[in-house]
Design a protein that fits this description.
By secondary structure, the protein is mainly β. Helices cover 0% and strands 56% of the residues. The protein has no helices and eleven strands. Strands 2, 4, 5, 6, 9, 10 and 11 form a seven-stranded mixed beta sheet that branches. Strands 1-3-8-7 form a four-stranded antiparallel beta sheet, with no helix packed on it. The chain is globular, with a radius of gyration of 13 Å. The N and C termini lie far apart (40 Å). The relative contact order is 0.32.
Length: 114
């Protein structure tokens, strides 16, 4: 059974930082492509950042230079370091694993106050 469990969300003031974590089980994490998505109220889910098994990364233009995705294969965990947060970053953040199929976590709320 595949499980992705996100943590680290919360309420932060604009300009602040948060680090999200996503712990995976039930997949061979080291060969999985991992990604963070977000969905704000009334908007479509969008990709924020992705990292391949070889640790190549890509980012949405809106977060480049502010967010960093990393992975720890020893802990089966992917992280999203979010700096210089803005109110428009407010959303539910989801972890996604691509391992034969796409698997999603339950999401964690990030709220950035102005």
């Amino acid at each position: 059974q595949v499980q992705l469990v996100e943590s680290g969300g919360g309420l932060v003031q604009a300009g602040g930082s948060l680090r999200l974590s996503c712990a995976a089980s039930g997949i061979i994490f080291s060969i999985s492509t991992m990604a963070w998505y977000r969905q704000a109220p009334g908007k479509q889910r969008e990709m924020v950042a992705g990292i391949t098994s070889g640790s190549s990364t890509n980012y949405a233009d809106s977060v480049k230079g502010r967010f960093t995705i990393t992975r720890d294969n020893g802990k089966n965990t992917v992280y999203l370091q979010m700096n210089s947060l803005r109110p428009e970053d407010t959303a539910v953040y989801y972890c996604k694993a691509k391992y034969m199929y796409d698997y999603w976590g339950q999401g964690t709320q990030v709220t950035v106050s102005s």
